[in-house]
Amino acid sequence: MKRVVLVRTNGPRNVGSVMRAVANFGPAELVLVAPQRRSMLVHPDFTMMAHGVENVRDRIRVVATLGEALEDTTRSVAFTARPRDGRVRVDWRERTSEFKSACDDPAQRIAFVFGSEADGLDAAETDACKEIAYLPTSAEHQSLNLATAVSIVLFTLYTGDAVHKRERGPRLSSERQLAFLREHLKAVLGSKVALSLAAKRDIEQSIDRVFTRVPIESRDARAWHMMMRALGSELAPRDFGIGGPARDQRRDDALERRVDEALGESDDAQA
Questions:
Q1: What does the pLDDT profile of the chain (271 residues) look like in tens digits?
Q2: What is the pTM of this model?
Q3: Which residue ranges form the domains of the chain, and what is each CATH number?
């Protein structure tokens, strides 16, 4: 089990944001140690940033000391950007895999401790934790927002199922479909647009370059075929000797029907 411990936190927006991260990447507990505002959990900024988290106030425990927050934990990690005399801080990236497994162990309760927005954790607070870690950053800006730091740690530890499934990407034209598109464009544009043999050669070479190198979505290929049909073309893959299995022929027939239907709707709209 993961436990997020915020020590002497001052900003209700940060606490609300952390609560949302806990809900996003839990299961985890949230404990506040001596928060600096009595109105923290009823502040409008907290409510706004924790929007959508059910029973939000019931999910937060408030204690007076860090000792109380750690008393039933099996491990504790303090996060600090400042070096500590006599103690080694570990790069969090080097320990993530280890802590992932530990957090999924029901026999363990691991506290991840973060200090206040103003001055972080003091020496006594880091001494109370068994380990010290830091989140590496660029030299340009070395301090992290509290809620951002907590979110990064929880995200790297998350091993649950993703609710947001992989989104379906665009459907790209097959090589066979691209071959037909290239030949269709060259046949129509070469004969109807080019005013000379040199111009026809340039157009055909340009079509080969563009429609070979660039991925073309099926819907874009369909749009180009519609334009060729609007210019009077009735050419099909078989006219160029582009064959294929029966399912490809069915797809070609379906494509032609969709193009014809689209052109028919366009004519009706103009009438």
A1: 899 999 999 999 999 999 999 999 988 999 999 999 888 899 999 999 998 898 888 889 999 999 999 999 999 999 998 877 778 889 999 989 889 888 988 899 999 999 999 889 999 999 999 999 999 988 888 888 999 999 999 999 998 877 766 667 778 888 888 999 999 999 999 888 878 899 899 999 999 999 888 889 888 998 999 999 888 888 888 888 886 555 556 666 666 666 666 656 555 554 4
A2: 0.62
A3: 2-157 (3.40.1280.10), 175-270 (no CATH)
- Strands (DSSP E) along the chain, which ranges? 2-7, 28-33, 60-63, 75-79, 89-91, 110-114, 131-134
Cα–Cα distance measured from residue 165 to residue 253, given in angstroms and rounded to the nearest whole number:
33
Distances, alpha carbon 226 to alpha carbons 164, 222, 231, in Å: 36, 6, 9
Are 14 and 117 a contacting pair, CB within 8 Å? Answer: yes
The answer to whether residues 180 and 40 touch, using CB atoms and an 8 Å cutoff, is no
- Euclidean distance between CA atoms 79 and 89, whole angstroms: 9
